Amino acid sequence: MVPHELRSPRIVYRLAWCATLIFGLWYAALSFGNHYFYRTFAFDLGIKNQAVFDYAHGRHNYNTVLPELGGEVNNLANHFEPIMALLSPMYWVFGNWTLLVVQWFCLLLGAWGMFRFARCAAPAKDWLPLAAMLSFFMFWGVFSALSFDVHTNVMAAGFLPWLFVAFEQKKWGKAAFWALLMVACKENIALWLVFIGLGLAWHYRRQVGQGKAALVLSLSAVCAFLLILKWLMPYMADGKLEYLHFNYSALGKDMGQAIKTLLTQPWKGIELLFFVPESIDSSFALKAKAWTWELLLMSGAWLAVFRPAAALMALPVLAQKMFNDDPTKWSPFLHYNIEFAPILAFALVVFAARLTPKIYVLMVSLGLIGGALATWRSFDLYRPQAYMPQQLKVWHADHWKRSPSAAKIRKVLDQIPQEASVSASSVLVPHLADRKIIRTWPDLREDDFVVLLDDGYMYYPQNQEVFLASVQMLREKSSYSPMHEGEGLFIFKKRH
Questions:
Q1: What is the mean pLDDT of each run of 10 residues along the chain (496 residues)?
Q2: If DSSP codes are grouped into helix, strand and coil, which group holds residue 97?
C-alpha cells in the first residue's frame, strides 16, 4: 500500500501507466527489433552474451569475442560487471535476449523510480511525478542507448532513481542495496557514485542525517572505485592485460597524470569540455560536442545553474565523455549519455518542488517541451559508422525488415553446431555467443566454422572492400571448404 500522503490523484497514476505502456512498447520495438533483425553487434552484446552464457554454466568467462582478451583473460578485466553473473540464471529463460530484456525492464523501473521520488520530494504537487517520469522516458540518450546493444551503465541509470527515493525516505538499507547494485554494473559507476554522494550531500545540507549519509556514500564509493581499479581488475587480468579504457591523452598517459593535470591546470579540463583539441581535425569532431551541449541545454541542463547538486552528479559523466580521445564519445550517440536521464529528471523535481504552483506548471511544461524537441532533433542528426540507418526510427518500414531476411539468416545459423568454435561477422556474434569459443571476424584461429554476412551496411571492423577480399581469401584457403554461399551469407567449414 502507498502511504496516504504519497498518493497521487487516480488520473495521474492512470496516465503514468499509459506512458509506461507507450514507452515500453516503443523501447521494445527499438531494442528487440534491432536484435531480431540482426542489428546488434559483437561489441558489446556479443561480448556480454558469451559472459552470461558462461556464468549460467557456472564458470568464469575467458572471453573470446574481444580480441584483446583472446580467450585467455577474464572478461571482468575488461569491464568490471559482476551484475551479469547475478543475471545469468535468466539465460535459461531468455537465451541471447536476456540482457536486452533486463535493460528494457531497468529503464521502465527507472522511470517509476523518478515518479516515486517526485511523489516523496514534493507531495503537494500532484502532477510533478508524471512530469519526472516523462522527463526520464523521453530523454534522447535513452533512445540512443537502446539503439545500440546492451550496456550495464544503462542498468545503473535505471537504479539511480531508487537510490534517490531511499535517501528521501531515509531508508539506509535500501540506499545501500541500490548503491551496491550500481557498483556491480561497471567500474566507472563507482566513480559516478562519488559525485552522486557529493550532490546529495549538497542537496540535503540542511538535513544532518541525510547529508552525513550522502558523504558516507561518497567515501564508500571512493574506496570501491580504488578497490576495483587497483586490485580486483588487475587480479582478473593476471598480468596479461593493461586497463583498456583509459583514452585521455590530452590529460596524460595514465590516470595519475590525468588527475595531476586537472588539479594543477583546471582550465585544461574546462577547455576540453567545450573545445576540440588541435590534434583532432574532422567535421564530425567539430560538431559532436556542440550537438551534445545543444541537446543537453534543450533537455533542461540549464537547471543545474539553480540546483548545483545536479551539476555535481553530472560532472564525471561529462568528463568521461568530453575528455576522451574518441569524438564519438563526445556526441549524443551510443550509450554515453544515458546517465544524464536520471540527473536531469532529478534537477527538474528539486527545482519545481520549491516553486509556486503557477510558475511550477510553466517551468515544468517548458522543460518537457524542450526535452521532447531535443529528442526529436537527435533522431535526424548524422550517425557515425557504427550505426545502421534502420536502427533508430521504429516508425520507418526499414526498421522492420532486412536483406537477407532475418528468417533466412536464422536458418543458415541453425546449421552451426553449438559445440563448434566459430569466427563470425559482428552482427551474427550476439546470436552465436552461447558457446565457449566465438570470435569476431577477421579474428580467426583455425576455428571450426567461419560465418560471414554481406548485407551492404555493416562490415566493422573491416570496410566492404577488405571484407570481400577476405571472403575470397577463405575460398582459396585449403584448410576451409565452402558449406553455404548465397544471398550475402557465407559459411566455411574447417577441413579435418
A1: 58 95 98 96 95 96 93 94 97 97 98 97 92 97 95 98 97 98 97 98 94 97 96 93 89 88 90 86 84 95 92 96 92 93 97 88 92 93 67 90 91 92 96 95 92 88 89 88 89 90
A2: helix
- Which residue is associated with the grid cell 577463405? 474
The DSSP code for 57 is: T
Helix axes 187-203, 172-183, angle to 10 degrees: 150
Q: Are residues 127 and 260 in the same domain?
A: yes
Q: For the chain, what is the domain count?
A: 2
Residues 136 and 258 in one domain: yes
In terms of domains, do 364 and 465 share one? no
**Residue 489 structural domain:** 406-494
Please check whether residue 150 lies inside any domain of the structure.
Answer: yes
Sign of CA dihedral 224, 228, 230, 232: positive
Exposed e or buried b per residue across 310-341, where buried means at least 16 C-beta atoms within 10 angstroms of its C-beta: bbbbbbbbbbbbbbbeebbbbbbbbbbbbbbb
368, 427: one domain: no
118-to-20, 22, 141, 470 alpha-carbon distances in Å: 16, 21, 21, 56
Handedness of CA 127, 129, 130, 131 (dihedral sign): positive
Do 264 and 221 share a structural domain?
Answer: yes
Beta bridge partners of 484: 491
